[in-house]
Design goal:
The structure holds 3 protein chains of 3 kinds. Chain A is about 40% helix and about 0% strand. By secondary structure, chain A is mostly helical. The longest helix of chain A is centred in the C-terminal third of the chain and has 12 residues. The termini of chain B are far apart. By secondary structure, chain B is mostly helical. Helices cover about 55% and strands about 5% of the residues of chain B. Chain B has a 4-stranded parallel β-sheet with strand order 2-1-3-4. Chain B has a 4-stranded parallel β-sheet with strand order 6-5-7-8, with helices on both faces. Chain C is an alpha/beta fold. Chain C has 2 domains: about 170 residues, FAD/NAD(P)-binding domain; about 150 residues, FAD/NAD(P)-binding domain. Chain C contains 7 helices and 20 strands. A 5-stranded parallel β-sheet of chain C has the order 5-2-1-9-20, covered by helices on one side. A 5-stranded parallel β-sheet of chain C has the order 11-18-12-13-14. In chain C, a hairpin with a 4-residue loop joins strand 7 and strand 8. In chain C, helix 1 packs parallel to helix 2. Chain C is elongated, with a radius of gyration of 21 Å. Chain C starts with a strand and ends with a helix. In chain C, about 50% of the residues are buried. Classes of the chains: A mainly alpha, B mainly alpha, C alpha/beta. Chains in contact: A-B, A-C, B-C. The interface between B and C is medium-sized, with 13 and 14 residues.
């Protein structure tokens, strides 16, 4: 069983109707390129942090875009911001900017 | 008339007196509060430095930089002259003006306005015998300053005429102060000329203009203009003085204490502190930092350069998007005539905005050790180098050829060095990585640490404090192996290389010669137009989280095309990030320094 | 009719176009930069989805051209500048004509650019083109001479990748990857084949069926995720890292051989055609036909036509169809003139 630290007590289905997409659309408005993700997983595969712990950048930002915010800030805090993901992203997404943006929108700075 | 009866007051002096009083009061309040809030460590530095040679050296630098503006002359002679004529000229006007009062009145106390408006008070006090030497000197100096004012006007209209592609966009306070300052000297010229026309005196400038005005307007009209002109001159001064501590002109005085403090070894740090105020307010917003900024020249981004960053920070209106949008390539710092630590200030601004200490963060690093091999020499490839396997395999070949036993710190993946996180402002969290890596290095007992990544190198050297471990960039290490005769390389016949200085390696760590020496050992080196201290940034800097991929590419293409203009067959760099970036924009082969060495090993 | 058309490029599109033109009585000169006609599929083994030997198709195309007195073939020469009535060769020679068909095709993406995949660094990282060559040579072997037991095939190398300035999809790599997996499996029934893909785009007739066949009958493994890095293992195998995006977990495995499905890149010549000859190119670098529907084999300049992959990545069948269509458009234009 994969434990992402924030999925234990949550219902399995992503209920887009019930999720509040306000923050999600704020995030994609500020960084529209995030919507161009094709989910190839290069970022997660190359991730320095993901190599050492359970951290899946692709999954977290995708969940955030679906309005699933719980635990996302804590997950993003695992990122070391090393920038490898930005170097491999075939869509040219500013991944480090995404990490900081999500933390800013869902966190406290 | 007895000297003691002389008065040095007229009602038109009020704006000047009020303005000057406000200015000195505000400046005093500022300096006192900044100094009072200096951390104890900084005070100790001041106490240690104040009675040493540092003070004399600082004094000499004040003369060179605050008066003569040597560093601006280095940027452009026209700009240098403009700043010097205003600063040094005005200073001399005050100094010679003081000497003039002494020459007329001997050593006696004269109130400030008496010095400033001396030409007005001379006839008032019944002095009719003029001293032409002083008249000439003061006229000459006034002309000197006016020439600077004229150039400042020209610079506003056409910055290119003074060697600047772009000049600063100013805010309201600056515009008020700027306009007042522009009027101060022309008004002084008019007031003194009219005075000379009525009461005599004045040399080629004020005397000449006085005679001209006299012949054109007649004595009656001049009589009417006389008082209002002195009023306007005083008003212009007063307005300038009031606006001054709140505007860019605060730099006039602030640069002086800054120079002293800097000679006492005070520096900005990872966290904001009181000393930063001296640096921030010493910025004259000259805008010299704008032209070297590639975000401006390549991408047309206009609101993020150091001058605007410092301005926004000073007025507490700094936004994250401005603070984040900087490559931290250090090209602006290189030319800043005030020598402000622009990168460090931006970094500590970022940390004020984003540094949220988090105890549990990166706890997953505990106990992780994926390193391989054993040896006194440790090799830390760096995250990015894992994406340039040519560098990895070349380093392996070099180590083998030199017979070096190597401990591979992060070949199978390790923790980041922490610098990218620091660059984004999360200083406390970055410490976790620093501590982790330090303990890893200690555990494996290395005495030399080699890295291929200049980003790692800088943080290892500056933040890790690795006692008993020598930290080397692979360019330094390779050169050392060659010099020790442990690595024999042959020259590639006819091979030509050009070299791109990575920002963190060159400007960041001062390593310019070692990679060049290595290249010259294997082939011919052709220098690009912008090189060494002036080298361009590849655009992919981890310090910038604001620009897009397309914008990074555009900068890279600009850099690549300049490197290709050298005609060299191979573009060499010594940073995995630069390599990846430049390769995107280049049509020729791009190689890491280690690659060209590895293929020439004999 | 007495007309003369120059066909630039002697690949499948150019050959098909030339044979059609000859059939309609137009004299043709084919300019080919290689030493013989055939283009890219000269080095290809079998063609999807029917596993038809490429040589079979080429032989038929050659036979259609053979013994025509109206045909001149100039090999080893490249065009530098073109207009509807003349072609200037890189040698400076000028050839007169009445119309030109540009059938210059594409360039294979240089896999060395994606340094993290280790092509040119590690011995057993090869491209799809290398694999076809091995098929033609009759043996797929590791550098050590041993047969591979586990092979990974990576899709989208030099396609859909901003980092190498190749934004477009090369279209044929997906099905090529499936085809090559099946061929490898036929060769080494005991070997494990893993295809790493982002999206499987099976656009042609029989392709989807082939994909299914590879999955079910050939037991080829499909992993949805892009390989991010390749590194050597101690025993000289290749360690690859990807995310298995369908399970959301990082995936690591050691393989004996990695095949990179290199994409189609526009020719460097195209920049020249835009700068010197007044032709238009798309942002991808491929040439821009006058209209995508009604004039898709015509250029924006009268008398200059396109056929095949010069305008976009295409498979062999599509390229040949365009050769026919371009010939027809040329004849119509010549008659109308």
């Amino acid at each position: 069983m994969i434990n992402f630290g924030f999925s234990i007590s949550k219902p399995r289905a992503i209920d887009i109707d019930r999720n509040n997409l306000r923050k999600s659309s704020e995030i994609t408005r500020e960084m529209p390129e995030l919507q161009s993700c094709i989910g190839c997983g290069s970022c997660t595969a190359t991730c320095t942090a993901g190599n050492l712990t359970e951290f899946n950048f692709r999954k977290v930002h995708t969940l955030v875009r679906r309005g699933e915010y719980q635990g996302a800030y804590e997950e993003m805090n695992k990122c070391m911001l090393c920038g490898k993901c930005r170097l491999v992203c075939p869509r040219g997404i500013n991944t480090r900017g995404v990490v900081m943006l999500i933390k800013r929108k869902l966190g406290d700075f | 008339m007895e000297i003691s009866d002389m008065t040095f007051f007229a009602s038109f002096c009020i704006p000047f007196i009020a303005g000057a009083s406000i200015m000195f009061a505000v400046i005093a309040v500022k300096y006192i509060s900044w100094l009072r809030n200096l951390p104890r460590k900084d005070w100790r530095l001041i106490a240690k430095g104040v009675f040493s040679m540092s003070t004399l050296r600082a004094l000499w630098e004040v003369v060179r930089e605050s008066l003569l503006h040597r560093r601006i002359f280095k940027v452009d002679a026209r700009l240098g002259y403009m700043h010097m004529s205003l600063a040094f000229g005005w200073f001399l006007l005050i100094a010679v003006g003081w000497a003039e009062t002494v020459a007329y009145l001997g050593f006696q106390w004269v109130p400030l306005q008496g010095h400033v408006f001396f030409k007005y008070f001379v006839p008032l006090n019944g002095i009719t015998a003029h001293k032409p030497v002083f008249d000439f000197a003061m006229d000459f100096l006034l002309l000197f300053v006016l020439s600077g004012v004229a150039m400042a006007w020209l610079k506003r209209l056409r910055s290119r005429a003074l060697g600047m592609r772009k000049t600063t966009n100013h805010i309201l306070f600056d515009r008020v102060a700027l306009s007042a300052l522009w009027f101060v000297f022309p008004l002084r010229l008019l007031a003194e000329s009219v005075t000379a026309a009525i009461y005599g005196g004045g040399s080629f400038l004020t005397g000449g203009l006085g005679r001209l005005l006299d012949s054109v307007m007649g004595e009656g009209a001049l009589g009417y203009a006389y008082e209002p002109l002195w009023w306007m001159y005083s008003l212009a001064l007063g307005i300038f003085f009031v606006a001054m501590p709140f505007s860019r002109y605060m730099h006039i005085f602030t640069e002086i204490p800054l120079i002293f403090l800097r000679h006492y070894r005070l520096r900005p740090e990872a966290m904001e502190k009181s000393y930063d105020n001296f640096e921030v307010e010493a910025c004259s917003r000259c805008g010299i930092c704008i032209d070297p900024c590639q975000l401006q020249s390549q991408l047309g981004i206009n609101e993020v350069q150091s001058v605007y960053f410092l301005r926004d920070r000073r007025y507490n209106m700094l936004q994250q998007k401005i603070a984040n949008n900087c490559l931290m390539c250090g090209r602006c710092e290189q030319v800043c005539p005030v020598g402000i630590n622009l990168n460090t200030l931006r970094l500590n601004s970022r940390s004020s905005m984003r540094n949220i200490p988090h105890e549990g963060r990166y706890n997953y690093l505990r106990g992780v050790d994926r390193s391989l091999g054993e040896g006194r020499v440790g090799y830390f490839a760096g995250c990015m180098t894992l994406l340039t396997p040519n560098t990895m395999s070349s380093m392996k070949r070099i180590f083998e050829a030199a017979g070096e036993e190597v401990w591979w710190a992060d070949k199978e993946g390790g923790a980041c060095c922490g610098r990218p996180l620091m660059l984004s402002g999360e200083v406390d969290s970055a410490r976790k990585m620093v501590e982790y890596n330090k303990s890893l290095f200690a555990k494996h007992g290395i005495t030399t640490l080699v890295t291929s990544c200049p980003i790692c190198l800088k943080v290892f050297r500056e933040e890790y404090h690795l006692e008993g471990v020598e930290v080397l960039h692979h360019s330094e290490y390779i050169l050392r192996l060659m010099e020790q005769g442990r690595l024999n390389v042959g020259r590639e016949q006819g091979a030509t290389f050009t070299y791109h200085d990575p920002c963190e390696l060159g400007r960041g760590s001062g390593i310019y010669d070692e990679p060049r020496a290595v290249i010259e050992a294997v082939g011919e080196l052709l220098e690009p137009e912008h090189t060494r201290h002036d080298a361009l940034c590849c655009g992919s800097s981890v310090a910038n989280t604001a620009i897009s991929d397309a914008q990074q590419l555009k900068i890279a293409q600009g850099v690549a095309s300049q490197l290709e203009e050298t005609g060299a067959q191979t573009i060499v760099t010594a940073c995995p990030l630069c390599k990846k970036a430049i390769a995107r924009g280049a049509t020729r082969q791009v190689a890491d320094l280690s690659e060209i060495v590895a293929r020439c090993i004999k | 009719m007495g007309y003369h058309t120059i066909v630039i490029g002697g690949g499948v599109a150019g050959m098909q176009c030339a044979s059609e033109l000859l059939r309609q009585g137009v004299a043709v000169t084919i300019l080919e930069k290689e030493s013989e006609l055939g283009g890219k599929i000269r080095n290809w083994h079998k063609l999807f989805p029917t596993f038809t030997p490429a040589e079979e198709v080429l032989a038929e195309l050659r036979s259609r051209l053979i013994s025509s007195p109206n045909l001149a073939v100039r090999t080893g020469c490249e065009a530098a500048k073109i207009a509807s009535d003349r072609v200037v060769l890189t040698s400076g020679e000028v050839l007169e004509c009445d119309s030109v068909v540009v059938a210059t095709g594409f360039t294979l993406f240089d896999a060395k650019v994606k340094e993290e995949y280790g092509y040119g660094i590690y011995d057993n990282v090869i491209t799809s083109a290398d694999l076809e060559r091995m098929f033609n040579e009759g043996a797929v072997r590791l550098k050590s001479g041993v047969t591979p037991r586990r092979i990974a095939i990576l899709h989208c190398v030099g396609s859909r990748d901003e980092k190498v300035c190749q934004r477009h999809c090369s279209k044929v790599c997906c099905v090529t990857g499936v085809k090559q997996a099946m061929e490898l499996k036929r060769m080494f029934p005991g070997a494990d084949i893993f295809n790493f893909y982002m999206d499987i785009r099976m656009f042609g007739p029989g392709y989807e069926e082939m994909y299914r066949e590879a999955q079910v009958d050939y037991n080829v493994h499909f992993v949805r995720g892009r390989i991010s890095e390749v590194s050597p293992t101690i025993d000289c195998r290749l360690q690859i890292k990807a995310e298995d995006t369908l399970t959301g977990r990082p995936l690591k495995m050691a393989v004996d051989m990695l095949v990179l499905l290199v994409g189609m890149k526009s020719n460097a010549l195209n920049e020249n055609l835009v700068a010197e000859c007044g032709l238009k190119a798309q942002p991808s670098g491929f040439m821009q036909p006058r209209d995508s529907f009604l004039h898709n084999v015509e250029s924006n300049r009268e008398g200059i036509f396109y056929a095949g992959a010069v305008t976009a990545p295409k498979n062999v069948g599509e390229s040949m169809n365009e050769g026919t269509a371009a010939a027809r458009a040329v004849v119509e234009w010549l008659a109308k003139r």
